[in-house]
Amino acid sequence: MSRLLQVSKVSKSFPGVKALQDVSFDLKAGEIHAIVGHNGAGKSTFVKVITGVYQPDEGEIVLQNQPVQFQSPYDAIHAKIGIVTQEGSLIDHFNGVENIFLGQETSKLGLLDHSSLQKKAQELLKELNIQIDLSKQVKYLSPAQRKLIEIMKIINLKPKVLILDEPTAALSDKERKKLFSIMNQLKLSGIGIIFITHHLEEVFLMGDRITVFRNGMNVGTKIASETNEDEIVKLMIEKSHFQAFPQKNHAIGKKILEVRNLSDGKKIQSCSFTVHAGEIVGFFGTVGAGRTELMELLYGATKRKTGTILVNGHPVNHRNVAQAIKNGFALIPDDRLRKGLLIEESVKVNLSLPSLKEMTLFGWIQQKLENKRTQHTVTALNIKTPDLKTKVNNLSGGNKQKVSFGKWTSSEQKKPLIYIFDEPTEGVDVGARSEMYKIMIQIVKDQQAGIILVSSDLSEIVGLADRIYVMKEGQIVDEIRKEEITEERLIESSLGV
Predict the structure, then answer these.
(1) Do the Cβ atoms of 131 and 121 come closer than 8 Å?
(2) Are residues 232 and 307 in the same domain?
(3) Which of 207, 309, 323, 459 pairs as cysteine with 34 (C-beta 3.0–4.6 A)?
(4) Distance in angstroms (rounded) separating the CA atoms of residues 331 and 451
(5) What average pLDDT does the segment 176-187 reach?
(6) Do residue 226 and residue 275 come from a single domain?
(7) Alpha carbons 341 and 394: distance in angstroms, whole number
(8) How does DSSP classify residue 346?
(9) 340 shares a domain with 452
(10) Model-level pTM?
(11) What pLDDT, in 10s, does the model give residues 201-243?
(12) Dihedral pair phi/psi, residue 109, rounded to 5°
C-alpha cells in the first residue's frame, strides 16, 4: 500500500503545556490506522494539527509525497483530508441534503438546483448502501443517522484521508456494525482512515495498525494482528511519575454525602456513590463517560429525573445551583473560563462573588472588609497577581484556576462541605499543580470537607484519591478502594477490558 500521509517530528505547545512532542505517524492508502490513548494523551491536538486547526511549532506534514502547511481547516479539506468529529458539525434546522452539500451547492440560473442535489444525495446513499430520509431536518434524526450524514458530507468531497473521531459514541451495536461496514467499503476504495476510539474491541476489530499516544507522544505503533489488549494498555500507562503528591496524615471521618440512583433520563443512569469527611473521591473514565454530566446533575445545574441525595444523612432536594450552594456544594468546573470565572472582571470581584452577602451592610459592599478577605485568599493560595484589581483574564492558567476555587474559601461564615473539582489541573504547569494539590489536602484536613475529584490524569487521580469510581457510558462500573488502586485497573475498567 502506498503511503498517503506522513507526519514527522511534529510538536505543539500552549502556555504551560507541551501538547505534542516530536510526534511521527504515517497512514497508507486503503488502511484503517487506529489511534488510542487516554484523555489528555494528545490525540485531539494531533488531529487538529493535521486538519489545519492548529499550526505545528516544529515538524513536517507530507501528503501524497508533497510537503503541506495548512493555515486553516479549509486548506486541509481542499487537500482532501476530511474529518467527522465527535461533536458533529451539522446544522439542526437544515435537512439531510442541505447539510451534505453545504458550501458545495450547485445552481441553475442563479437558483439552487434542488433536483441535482437530490440526485447526488441518492447516489451517495446507494454508494454507501444507506437508507435515510434526507428530507427531514437533522434534529429529528437519530444519532446514528446524523453520524452517517456527517460521513456522506465528507465523502462528497472525495477525501483521500478520512479521520473518524469517536464515531461510535451513542450508537447501538446494530448501528456500529453498519458504520464498520461503511468503513470497510471506504477502505477497499483506497481511502486511508484514521480511527480514534476508546473501545479496544473496536480497535482490534477494525484496525490494521494501532498507534498509542501518551503525554503528547507517539509511544508505539503495532500491527493489530501481532499485538493484544494487554500490550496496548501497558503502552497507555506512564510508568514513571515525577510529580510528588502531598502526604495525607489525617483520618477519614463520617459519611457526609450519599447519592442513590441518580439519573437524568438521558446520559446518566442510576449512579450511586458516597463521600466521607476528609476524603478525596476520584471519578475516572474516558471522554464521554458522563463524569462532568454527573457532577452537573449533582450540583443542580441540570435537571434530575430520579435519585436521592443525602447530606449528613438528611435528604436534600436542590433543583438549581443556588440551592446546591446553600446545601454545602461547591463546583470548580471543567471549563473554568466559561463556567467558573468572570474573566473580564477583577480578581477581587471573582473571589468575593459567592460571599458578597457576608460583606454587605444596608445594601452596600464594605470595601475594606472585601479587600481584607480577598487579599487573605490571594496570600493563602499564593495567587500571583499584580493586585486585586487585575482582570482574571490577564493571569496565567494556574492562577486562573486558583481564583476559580479560591472564591469558595473566602467565606468566613460558611465554607462548602463538598467540593467538586472537575479536571482542576488541565492546562496548568507542574509548579502550579503542586500548589493546588497542597490546597486540596489542606481543605480536607482543616475543614473536614469531602472532595470529589474528576480527573483524566492517571498519576493525579492515583496520587490523590482515597477511593475511585470508574464511569463508562453514563454508569458507574467500578469502585476501587485505596489499596486496590493501580493504573492498570483504572484503564481496564474504563475501557471495559
Answers:
(1) no
(2) no
(3) 207
(4) 10
(5) 90
(6) no
(7) 12
(8) B
(9) yes
(10) 0.66
(11) 899 999 999 999 988 899 999 999 999 988 998 888 765 444 5
(12) 55, 40
